[in-house]
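Researcher: Sequence recovery benchmark, item below. Answer with residues only.
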């Protein structure tokens, strides 16, 4: 299992790709599979940990990302003969090593940061195997084995049948995620808004978030770890997700629903695959529609939100689907 090394696996706070790699690794190990996790040296796993990079380079800025990425990926491929299959969660770069081994390489494509990375995926199309994380995030230029939606460990998210009157924004502070629009929605509804997440774009944060923070109606609480995440998500009346891009998946959406909290999301990317409009949240096209749906949030049964995740987005379901893909690739 090749995890990214931007953050520890599993991440302390932020790190969605590392989180998925961890959940899948631990789920496979619990089923009796022999798994080696290639991740940072401070990572935690019940499988075998193979590490070159001491810490996540986002957590230790003295580490040069490209240097440690090269060392990390090459370490796996130099030891590839010891494995039946390589499962890549590291985006496109490991594909450039895949021609050096006969061991099959499965790549979960967690999203396309730019159309500019497609040439790598196209070069290795049909030479390896691709899984998409949503139907919305498939490229017509590539062939896929399957779409496998992410799953979460639902035991980490406490269901909250009762909630406060506040709204929550939970995600990267970046234009893609729509923090500015979330603030506008909350202010127009005269609701308190709590913002949580890493600051990924400092200029965006300084220009669009800082001037709005008054620690009364708008509060920024930083990046939230697992315990605080469950509390924040469960305590909110709704999570605002006014994304400004075609989001490949959106772990926070299912995490929110696991706590019973409905999501009001802009209808882009994978959102229709995660949210049943009017049942566990609302799909809207703009700020005006989002404001209107806030007034209707009490019509959502919070238990329905939890059941939707239990039925469709558990780690057990995700692990089983990946096992089936492994079996298909290996012909067993």
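Model:
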């Amino acid at each position: 299992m090749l995890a990214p090394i931007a953050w520890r696996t599993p991440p302390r706070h932020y790190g969605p790709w590392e989180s998925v790699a961890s959940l899948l690794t631990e789920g496979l190990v619990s089923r009796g599979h022999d798994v080696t996790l290639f991740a940072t040296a401070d990572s935690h796993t019940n499988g075998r940990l193979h590490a070159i990079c001491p810490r996540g380079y986002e957590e230790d800025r003295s580490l040069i990302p490209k240097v440690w990425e090269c060392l990390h990926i090459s370490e796996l491929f130099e030891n590839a003969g010891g494995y039946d299959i390589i499962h890549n969660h590291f985006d496109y770069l490991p594909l450039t090593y895949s021609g050096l081994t006969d061991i099959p390489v499965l790549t979960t494509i967690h999203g396309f940061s730019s159309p500019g990375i497609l040439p790598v995926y196209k070069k290795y199309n049909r030479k390896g195997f691709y899984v998409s994380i949503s139907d919305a995030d498939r490229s017509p230029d590539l062939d896929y084995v399957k779409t496998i939606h992410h799953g979460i460990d639902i035991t980490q998210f406490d269901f909250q049948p009762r909630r406060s009157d506040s709204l929550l924004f939970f995600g990267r502070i970046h234009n893609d995620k729509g923090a500015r629009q979330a603030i506008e929605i909350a202010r127009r509804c005269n609701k308190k808004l709590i913002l949580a997440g890493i600051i990924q774009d400092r200029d965006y944060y300084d220009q669009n978030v800082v001037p709005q923070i008054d620690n009364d109606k708008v509060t920024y609480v930083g990046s939230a770890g697992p315990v605080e995440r469950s509390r924040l998500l469960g305590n909110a009346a709704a999570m605002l997700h006014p994304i400004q891009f075609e989001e490949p998946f959106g772990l926070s959406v299912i995490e929110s629903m696991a706590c019973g909290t409905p999501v009001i999301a802009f209808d882009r990317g994978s959102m229709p695959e995660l949210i049943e409009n009017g049942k566990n949240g609302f799909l809207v096209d703009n700020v005006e529609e989002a404001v209107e749906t806030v007034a209707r949030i009490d019509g959502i049964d919070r238990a329905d939100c939890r059941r939707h995740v239990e039925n469709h987005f558990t780690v057990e379901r995700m692990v089983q689907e990946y096992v089936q893909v492994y079996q298909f690739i290996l012909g067993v």
